[in-house]
Amino acid sequence: MKRFFLASALLALAFSALAQTQDPLDRDQSKYATYSFSNDDKYTVETPYETVTVVQPKGKKVKNVIFMIGDGTGLSQWSVGWVANGGALNVDQMPVAGYSRTYCTDKLVTDSCAGGTALAIREKTKYGYIGVDENGEPVESNLQYAKRKGMKTGVTVTCRINDATPADFCIHGTSRKDEEGLAAQYVDANVDFISGGGTHFWNQRSDGRNLIEEMKAKGYTYVDKLEDIAGAEGDKFLGLYDEYDLKPALDRGPILLESTKKAIEMLDNKKGFFLMVEGSQIDDWCHRNKVGYAIEELFDFDKTIGYVLEWAAKDGQTLVVVTADHNTGGLTLLKGSIEERTVKVHFSTKGHDGIVVPVFAFGPGAEAFSGVHENSEVGQIVRKLMK
Ligand SMILES: [Zn+2]
Questions:
Q1: 14 CA to centre of ligand 1 in angstroms
Q2: Could you give the strand order of the β-sheet that contains 331-337, starting from the edge strand earlier in sequence?
Q3: Phi first, then psi: what are they for 209, rounded to 5°?
Q4: What 3-state DSSP class applies to 349?
Q5: How much distance in Å is there from the Cα of 351 to the middle of ligand 1?
Q6: 3-state SS class at 43
Q7: Fewer C-beta neighbours within 10 Å, C or N terminus of the chain?
Q8: Whether this model's pTM surpasses 0.85
Q9: Residues within 5 Å of ion ligand 1 by Cβ?
Q10: Which residue(s) pair with 196 in the sheet?
């Protein structure tokens, strides 16, 4: 009896260890969340968060660019989030809005690689391509251009840092599956501020390299938890907080907000900076058709937008753009109540869809984003304003 008890205890231990080990290819993180919602298509928010009020600055000079991407975040995600927060979002404070067409060169419905690349390198490319043109040739991104101009640069995301959107701005490749290869490119990318997940591809590699140690040797301050972000010093920052993607919003805490604050503090300098901030997992939860998790991710992103807008309003020379690489989930807002902060939705797909996404802009040059644009044109406008 005693032996049986021991064996079953060991078995239970082994199972719980298994449950905590993420499979890098299985990206369904709901089983790692410590919280769950009773419905996948309904959500009610108990306590809404306060939103900011900002005034568009008068100056025309663009010194800094903060380019913010809600992965998979279209008009319906913003609409659902707006109702769920009681009829207020920080993004509402951005005075200019336009639309971006997201199709890529070989497909009507794009993936994040090609969708983000068009925003980053100013031209459309093939499905699955990262920071390269249609022929697979690397093209300088707006972030890399900023670096060449002597500006400081940074990216902060809630996915693995080698994932499509951050990679589109920092490195180049034709396959997102080459995760170790993409991660290794960051060592020579010379990006001043890097924050996200994916340590598996940095220090548990098949080639035995430890990229975190290599980055430290290059002068990067390395941080691996939320509590250590605010106190980090130095002028180069590497923050990696999880083995693969970061945990869901309510589990990980305000890593996106805190890392964005730190990035602005470290990057702000006489020559200006280019910072890309991504709310990465709004897309993931729309893929999984779970609206509560998607709304919490959207709130996490929108709270970060609130901080950025207040900072940019004070600075007066910072262009802030908020857009998406594509729309995800065919999300429809069916009914709900602004007063009760409740939504009932329908998802028509577990994939991406081809609906135009909004582009919001604030700060000097913002008016140029009004109207209907190709996604590549959004990148072109940013580049023009950086000159
Ligand atoms: Zn996606």
A1: 32
A2: 42-44, 342-347, 331-337
A3: -70, 150
A4: coil
A5: 7
A6: strand
A7: N
A8: yes
A9: 283
A10: 240
pLDDT recorded at residue 34:
84
For residue 331, the CA-to-ligand 1 centroid distance in Å is 13
pLDDT at 252: 96
Helix/strand/coil for 101: strand
Q: Is 317 exposed, middle or buried (0-12, 13-18, 19+ CB in 10 A)?
A: middle
The lowest-confidence range among 3-12, 43-52, 79-88, 196-205 is 3-12
Spatial contact of 361 and 306, defined as CB atoms under 8 Å apart? no
H/E stretch holding 184: helix 179-185
87: left (phi over 0), alpha (psi -120 to 50) or beta: left
Chain CA centroid to CA 266, Å = 19
Which three-class secondary structure state does DSSP give residue 279?
strand
Would you list the domain boundaries of the chain? 87-386
**Looking at residue 35, what is its pLDDT?**
85
Catalytic annotation, residues: 112
At residue 190, φ and ψ (nearest 5 deg) are 60, 35
DSSP 251-308: HH-SHHHHHHHHHHHHH--TT-EEEEEEETHHHHHHHTT-HHHHHHHHHHHHHHHHHH
Give dist(CA 359, CA 365) in Å, integer: 13
Longest dimension (CA), the chain: 79
Q: Which residues are CB-neighbours of 235 under 8 A, at least 6 positions away?
A: 192, 219, 266
| Residue 326 CB neighbour total at 10 angstroms | 28
Query: What single DSSP character describes residue 23?
Result: P
pLDDT band at 342 (very low <50, low <70, confident <90, very high): very high
Work out the end-to-end distance of the chain between its first and last CA atoms, rounded to an integer number of angstroms.
77
Q: How far is the CA of 163 from the centre of ligand 1 (A)?
A: 11
- Asked if the model's pLDDT at residue 345 lies above 70, the reply is yes
Give me the architecture of the 87-386 domain, per CATH: 3-Layer(aba) Sandwich (3.40)
CA of residue 387 to ligand 1 center, whole Å: 32
How is residue 86 annotated by DSSP?
T
Beta strands 331-337; 342-347: pairing state: antiparallel
Please give the pLDDT value at position 33: 79
CA of 272 to the centre of ligand 1 (A): 32
Alpha carbon of 352 to ligand 1 centroid (Å): 6
CA 362 to chain centroid, in Å, comes to 19
56 CA → ligand 1 middle, Å: 32
